[in-house]
Amino acid sequence: MNRLIQNEMMKLIAKKRLVVIALIIGVLVILFTYAQYKQVETQREKLGTSDWRTTLQQQIVDTTNRLSSSRISDEWKKQLQISLQQQQYYLDHDINPSEPGAPTFIRIFLESSIDLFIPLMVMVIASDLVSSEHSLGSIKLLLTRPVKRWKVLLSKYITLCLAISLIIAIAGVLSYLISGVVFGYKGWGAPILTGFNVTDTGLNTSEVKLLSQWKFLLMDFGLVWFVAIVVGTLSFMLSVLIRSTAAGMGVMLAALISGAILNNMVSSWESAKYFFMVNLRLTDYMKGTAPPIEGMNLSFSMMVLIIWWIAALVVSFIAFTKKDVY
Amino acid sequence: MNKNTIRSITVVAALFCLIWLLGLGWAVGEYYAGQPEKVPTTKLVNEKIENKKGITIVALGDSLTRGTGDETGKGYVGVLMDEIKEKTKRPVQLTNLGINGQRSDQLRKQVQQTEVGRQIKKADLVLVTIGGNDLFRGGQGLEDFATEDIAAIEKDYLDNLKFIFDQIRKNNSNANVFFIGLYNPFIELDQGKEMSKVVRHWNYDSAEISAAYPKIVFVPTFDLFELKVNDYLYSDKFHPNSKGYRLIAERVASLLTW
Prior knowledge:
By secondary structure, chain A is mainly alpha-helical. Chain A has helices at 2-14, 17-47, 52-68, 74-92, 102-113, 117-126, 131-136, 138-143, 149-183, 213-241, 245-262, 283-287, 298-322; strands spanning 191-194, 197-199, 202-204, 209-212.
C-alpha cells in the first residue's frame, strides 16, 4: 500500500500540478492584496483618519441608512440588519473586526475562496486522477499488477487527500507571506468574536465567544479542508465514471458555479438545501452571517456534505472495481 | 525523481492533513460547546485622543445631515466641509452620523452610544439637524398640526433636544455646536400659513433651549426657504436640493470663527 501511494505521489509531482496551483494562488493573492490595500487607502482618504472605530461607526451609520431605503428586498434587509448588529457588537466591546495584518488577510481570503476558488484548485488535481490513466492507456499496466483494484483506487484517493492538504497549506503560507509585505506579519493574537446565532428575530449574541485569531484561523482552515475534501471526492468520482477529463471537469465546474448562483436566490426554495453546492460556505457559520436558506446550520451543512462524500466514495469504488477495462 | 523528496513531501502532506483535521474537529467542537470565555464587557472608551492635525467635524441628525436630495450627495455638511477646507487650508475629518428619517428620540439613543460619545469628544465642531421628522412625520404633520397632539409631540421633542445637548456638552464642553433650525417645505400648500406658524413656534422653543447652553448656536433656516421654496426643494418637495443645501451651508459658514 505504501509503495502504491509513493508511486501515485511520484506521478503527481512529476506532473507539476502542485507547482501550477501554487503559481495560480500566488498571482491571485498578489491581486487580492493590492485590491485590499487600495480599499483601505481610499477609505482612509475619504474619512481622513485611520482610526478603526471611526471607520466602523461610519459603516454602521451607512448601513442604517441603506436599511431605511424602501427599495431593498427583505432578504437583503435581513442580511444587512445582522451585519449591522454584529458591527455594533464589535464596537460596543471595543474589538476591531479586521485588525490589520496578514492573519486577517488570510481569514478574509479563506472565507471568500471556500466555495469556489479552493474547490477549483482541488479539481485541477482530482478531475484527471483516474481518467488520465485511461487516456494515456496506462490503466492497463496498473491493473495487470498483482494488486487488488480497490487498493489501487484507495492509493489514488489517499494521494488526493494528501495533495488537498498540501494545497490548503500552500494557500495559507503564500497568502501569509505575500500579504504580510503590505499589511505586516503581526496579528495572530488579535481577538475575534464567534458564536453569533442568527435567529428569526435577528442576531442572538448571548453565546458569543472571544477567540484568538490563530485559533479562529485554524478552525477556518479545518473547514476549508473539509469542503475541499468533499469537492475533491466528488470530482474523483466523476473522474472514475467519465473517461473524458474535460467532461468530468465541466460537470463539476457547472455544479460549483450553480452553487454560487443558487446561494443568492434559493431562500424560497427550501429543498435546495440538500444540494452539496449551497452548503459549501461553512466558514460563514463561524462568522455568523445569515444562512442562504432558513434553518441551515453547521451540523446540517456538514451532514449534507458527509452524505455526498460517502455516496461519492461508494460509487467510485464500486464503479472502479466492476468496470471493464479494454 | 529522488525518492527521498517524494517521501518527505508525502510526510509533510500527511502532517498538514492531520493539522487540518484537528482544526476541523476543533471548529465543530467550538461551535457546539457552551460559552467558556466571557467577552469583556467593561472595556472603557479609549481616553487617549489621537494627536490631530486638522479639524474634526461631527454631524448628527436626520436626512438633512445625510444630504438626501442633493444630487452631488454632499448635503450642507459636505459643502460646509469643502468651504472650511478651502478657508483654513487644513485637513478636515468629517464623521457624518446622520440617519435618514431619524427622530429626536432616536438621536437621543444614538448620542448615548459610547463610540458616538467618543466621536463627539474628539470634535472641534458639532452640527445637528433634528426635529423635522418629529414635526412633519412624512407629511402626516400636515393633517394634525392644528390638533392638541402636536403640543405633546413638541414637548417630547424639546425634552429629547435638551437631553441631546446635555449629552454633547457632557462629552465635549469646548466645541462649537450649530443646531440647524427647521424650515417649512409646505409653505406654498393650502395650509402652509398655519404650518409656518407651528414651525416658527418650534424654532423659537429650540432657540430658547440652545441659548441655555454655552456655545450652542441656533441657526435659523426658515427665512432661507420662505420665498420661492420650490426653487430650493428636491423633487420630493420635502428635502432641499443642491441649491437649498448650499444656502444652509453658507449660513453656517458665515458663523464660523477660528
